[in-house]
């Protein structure tokens, strides 16, 4: 008799889009297509909750839901808001989504978006990431970070907001900046290199993993990085947040 696939549902809230999908929790892969809806403007808690409800309803999912936020999340409460409306600060996101989805609070897992992506990469990506200090950076609307020591997460690091050369790092080196300023991949790679050089001299990681949507074009910029620290491309690319969120919800992992 073939064992049933363990399934979960994850939603990744970003500055430009909100994505959700059913996840095979044994393989760390999406089941079917992901559903993507533009992030509402303004991206207030109530507006975003409506979109999350729509995605879960479209998918016909009635189990636990994992949700990522581009924010520091502690015990279900958002304490910052990066690239989403500032009304999120101080919001009990656990309670908000539980109410909007008609679920108990124990059926919703809230976590930082980069932490969720990192958890998925540690579990389902290259095994080398599970030993030593691994830093995952997601390059998208902003820069998210997740740091692991021997596979154990140090939650809510905010290394995308390091001040480098007088600027918030993500304002210079996020993938959105490349598009907004019309930078070529080599031009943008110089900024990413500068950012990662500063970060590696601060925390001395054994490995960098680079993810986010721009990881799909990794061959155009990752080879241009000349760092002391080895760099791997995220194996789950831009689906890592969804996978990590689904796993967190299924297993009751909260930060």
TrEMBL record:
<keyword id="KW-0418">Kinase</keyword>
<keyword id="KW-0808">Transferase</keyword>
<dbReference type="InterPro" id="IPR000600">
    <property type="entry name" value="ROK"/>
</dbReference>
<comment type="similarity">
    <text>Belongs to the ROK (NagC/XylR) family.</text>
</comment>
<dbReference type="InterPro" id="IPR043129">
    <property type="entry name" value="ATPase_NBD"/>
</dbReference>
<dbReference type="GO" id="GO:0016301">
    <property type="term" value="F:kinase activity"/>
</dbReference>
<protein>
    <submittedName>
        <fullName>Polyphosphate glucokinase</fullName>
    </submittedName>
</protein>
<dbReference type="Pfam" id="PF00480">
    <property type="entry name" value="ROK"/>
</dbReference>
